[in-house]
Amino acid sequence: MELEEMSSFFNSRAKNYEQHMMNNIEGVNELYSEIAKLIPKINELNLLDLGCGTGLELDEIFKINSTVKVTGIDLAENMMEKIKQKHNDKLNQLNLIVGNYFDYDIGTCMFDCALSVETLHHFTHEEKINLYKKIFKSLKQNGFYIEADYMAPSQEYEDYHFNENRRIRSKLGITEGFYHYDTPCTVENQIQMLQKAGFKSVEKVWEYTNTVILLAKK
């Protein structure tokens, strides 16, 4: 099995990404509308969108709150171009950054809310906890974080995919960098990681098969 470098993987799939998501992710129509329901109708609310992709979640959020100011970070420039095409009337509300959200300085007490959708199921516990700490610091005092993602149905499932990812990387001689392989974590592990990062309240607010929305409050 070959592993494809992450930005290359998503840049090359930008054209058909939305069709893939809508056709292959169970409960996806409800997923994006449920995310949007969690966004307050505050004028010019500051939103951080990690791994924003083509902005499927933003399509629904703008229907509920058209004044949201979005900082979106993603490795795939081709995907973010889709956001500009779809929402060219909101370019003054969009700050789209091509980059790695693990390394990018997202600031302190900047955002009313942050979210990630179908992006963090590629990373280790340690990587996620470090990112969650950054997200926590970036939120205003009453801010919150939404994570909507594919999550492992059992610890055995999670362990298998982490071990398989390590095995393949070792076989290919890959020692660093982001490569596309799904390593989802269980809901229980996700909640524990968010709590370790400092979030006071973490709850599962929606679930359809293996797709889950978690709401973490600062």
Description:
By secondary structure, this protein is of the alpha/beta class. The chain has one domain: Rossmann fold, CATH 3.40.50.150. The protein has helices at residues 6-11, 17-24, 28-37, 56-64, 77-86, 125-138, 155-172, 187-196; strands at residues 46-50, 69-74, 94-98, 111-117, 139-150, 201-208, 211-217. A hairpin with a 2-residue loop joins strand 6 and strand 7 (211-217). Helix 3 (28-37) packs across helix 4 (56-64) and helix 6 crosses helix 8. The model has no long low-confidence stretch (mean pLDDT 94). GO terms for molecular function: phosphoethanolamine N-methyltransferase activity. It catalyses: phosphoethanolamine + S-adenosyl-L-methionine = N-methylethanolamine phosphate + S-adenosyl-L-homocysteine + H(+). It comes from Clostridium saccharoperbutylacetonicum N1-4(HMT).
Sequence-ordered SSE layout with sheet pairings:
Elements: H1 6-11, H2 17-24, H3 28-37, E1 46-50, H4 56-64, E2 69-74, H5 77-86, E3 94-98, E4 111-117, H6 125-138, E5 139-150, H7 155-172, H8 187-196, E6 201-208, E7 211-217
Parallel strand pairs: 1-2, 1-4, 2-3, 4-5
Antiparallel strand pairs: 5-7, 6-7
Helix pairs in contact: 3-4, 6-8
EC number: 2.1.1.-
Pfam families: Methyltransf_25 (PF13649)
Organism: Clostridium saccharoperbutylacetonicum N1-4(HMT)
Question: How would you summarize this macromolecular structure in one to three sentences?
Answer:
The protein has helices at 6-11, 17-24, 28-37, 56-64, 77-86, 125-138, 155-172, 187-196; strands spanning 46-50, 69-74, 94-98, 111-117, 139-150, 201-208, 211-217.
